[in-house]
Amino acid sequence: MKIRKIAIVGGGTAGWMAANHLGVELASDPDIEITVIESKEVPVIGVGEGTVPRIKETLDRFGISEVAMLANCDTTFKTGIKFSNWMSAESGHDFYYHPFSAPFPQGFDVTDHWLSQKSGPCFSTLSESYPLSEQDRCPKRKSSPPYTGAVDYAYHFNAGKFSELIAENARRRFGVVHKFATVKDVVLREDGEIASLVFSDGSSGEFDFYLDCSGFSSVLLGGALKTPFEDRSDRILTDSALVLQEPTAEDAAIHPYTTAHAHKAGWIWDIPLTNRRGLGCVYASKYMSDVEALGELSEYVGRSLSSVDVRKIPMKIGFRENFWRKNCVAFGLAQGFVEPLEATSILVTDFSANLLAKRFPRTRGDIPRLSEYCNKIVRYTWERVIDFVQLHYCISDRRDSQFWVDCTEGAKLSEELADRLDRWSIATPKSLDFFSAFDIFGVENYLYVLYGMKYSTRAISLSETEHRRAAEIVETANRHAEKLAAELMPQRVWLTELQKQLTRAGM
């Protein structure tokens, strides 16, 4: 039987991103109807406000202009993440960057040369975006084409406005139907597939294929189909977050990066938008109370937040045993979650929604073969994402609290992460260490974190000629980066001028 009617239960970023991916791939089939069913009774989490460069390609494929993105979502540019306080005070290492530009100046891997310089600058300086970040520069020139910059970049945005933008695009461009209703019950067939949905007003809807984007509740995949959740809280110990929004002045500088500031039981995120900062204190409730977490956030902000409306979000670390079961696939929080240290929520949603769209079953008979293949890929992706997030904790030299002792000396690592770290203690990471196309984080990402946190790797002996050549390459790259930073505009100025142009154009 041909699959014609597709239901997406839940809106938000996950639901509407999935709708757009399916819209792109299935647009040529007039028989297919996609319906997003959104409940007015279920609040959207709405704190996924950081992205990685992959989002530019995705938005371009959806047919969304970058100007629309910048104009409607309080958007700012992000060239990477600044990690502060992740090492002990004794290390003399206050911060490092994980930028989006590769640490290979002129295409050369100078890591072994860098390791031999015992008192040299931080590893982040190998990225051309380092001085841009330090000077709050915009990664785009005035003349830069859409989705292209002087250095690679992603975005920070208002999650609610971003959902509205991609929702409007899905409805207008791909004819996606939008229905407001709350799912009260799920009816299954004898073979275990979902037959229909029963809504709170007594009506029902029958579809051929279902996407579960219902958040942590996972109404379809976790609830009706009882797909087990694989808990990974023994590897990522943080389980709670306190969040708030802090208004900013119209002329305040805008950092082109997310700040991740560590504390004694977790870390604080600081995401700059055009009109506010999104702040969140991530912590492990086993080691820190809500009151203590609020104190950490107050200290970071610089004033008491005891009378401020701060929202608490519980975080369940892990993923569903399978993200695709029978005629149901889950995305977003319904599929899995790991704390937002590397902006992985939207990244994994984007990746897995694109995977489904490109391998969408055209008949019910296609489901068993395609689901087995896709489940293997998504599971591998989740395992490696958790590896990368845990890396930030397990290689720290902080021991100033029981949390950091348990994250380091008591860390439970996956076999793959343990093997990689052991191998990288005797040789620096190379691209050949990442044998799968589904390693979302590759050698460049690992290099920045490993050596930003002073991971100990036995340096390979280089000849004097090799050292001299590497030093020349680094010096030339640093001069180019400084020159580039001097040429580019402050991010606040660039974005303000864009808004003035849009206003004059009546947009």
UniProtKB/TrEMBL annotation:
<dbReference type="Pfam" id="PF04820">
    <property type="entry name" value="Trp_halogenase"/>
</dbReference>
<dbReference type="InterPro" id="IPR050816">
    <property type="entry name" value="Flavin-dep_Halogenase_NPB"/>
</dbReference>
<dbReference type="InterPro" id="IPR006905">
    <property type="entry name" value="Flavin_halogenase"/>
</dbReference>
<dbReference type="InterPro" id="IPR033856">
    <property type="entry name" value="Trp_halogen"/>
</dbReference>
<dbReference type="InterPro" id="IPR036188">
    <property type="entry name" value="FAD/NAD-bd_sf"/>
</dbReference>
<protein>
    <submittedName>
        <fullName>Tryptophan 7-halogenase</fullName>
    </submittedName>
</protein>
